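Assess this one:

_____
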Amino acid sequence: MPEIQTVEPTRNGWRGAVEIPGDKSISHRSVMFAGVANTPVHIRNFLHAADCLSTVGVMRALGVNIEFRNENELIVTGRGFHGLTEPLTVLDAGNSGTTLRLMMGLLAPQPFLSVFAGDSSLTRRPMGRVRQPLSQMGARIFGRSGNNNLPLTIVPTEEKLHGIHYESPVASAQVKSAILLAGLYADAPTTVTEPYVSRDHTEQMLTGFGVHIERTGTSVTVFPVEDGGYCAPDMITVPGDISSAAYFLVAGSIIEGSRLLLRNIGVNPTRTGILDVLTEMGAQISVQNEHMSGGERVADLAVEAASLHGVSFGAEIMPRLIDEIPIIAVAALFAEGDTVITGAGELRVKETDRLHAIATEFQKLAPGSIEEREDGLIIHGKPEMQRAQVSSCGDHRMAMSLAVLGASANGVLIEEPDSVNISYPTFFSEIERLS
């Protein structure tokens, strides 16, 4: 991929059907959870992208046999619930916060030493929010900056981890999942209570592996796995990632003459905040052919160009669309009136400080259109647009959002475009096909 990717303006709309790559969150979990089973699991529509391949590399280093039939189809033959082996080298999580945080939970109860490293971006991201509850369970985790940053070392404990009831200050699927995975090996049930319900792919998939899960309000409890109580399904089919579909939902809404059909998208209710916000803005999106697959809701999404208007939303919906804020900001630039986003402080500790990146880079294309706030943004719709060179800040979601913004306006030149490899390696060729 070139060091600078040029995206030209689209004049006649984006039209056609799009096969969205597999859901990143579910792809990660399918490999991890199959890796501690004792029967082979056939995984289809796996997201063959850098983040998920980091999970594959870590699980292989722990002794799990993973065989790719093709890029998107693999067989994971696990080592059994107590069968992971001590890695011979440092475990590399790459850019993947999901790999690191969930594996911290899975490895904290194991009877061997693990050391994690990652790329420069992941090395800056905070891990204390996971380490703290795991430490309350008895885990021994040490790292840089007061045990908050990579590299991290997980030291085996002398006794089982303890089941706890953890009141999480943030609604975070990664924090919740790490605690639940550690809880599988604990001496008593483990409960996580969140201020709002975060995405629940971990709970859904663990249930499919025979784990006893109970949900009450914003709390979820996992019960320790007894002998023989962890049974893998023969097959997992990963639905299309709604976070990746979001770029096409917005482009289809704001580029005049567009009409798109996005097939087999995961529409888990804990992930569909993007549909709620775009619909409130006036987008024409229809949900078709809805069905269940592997415990997850799946549907086709049809979208066509529409007139949008500004909206306001905040903390309550944020766990259901936190990854979609950059592309929602693009929609807001093409909407009548202002869009006010609050409760989004979590974006400051993503691959980059996304709130600052949106305010800085988007305004190179739409000067004076965005006001940055401590926990959100105010976006003034329908500004004068211009062509400009911008930076993805090494963030895949910024790169794809900037591409949609440029295609919808006067074009854009994007630095560090290869960041899309984190979640959607074929993104630029796909938008070229559609336009």
In short: The longest strand covers residues 284-293. Residues 396 and 420 are 4 Å apart (CA to CA). The chain has two domains: 4-22+239-434, 24-237. The domain at 4-22+239-434 is CATH 3.65.10.10 (UDP-n-acetylglucosamine1-carboxyvinyl-transferase; Chain).
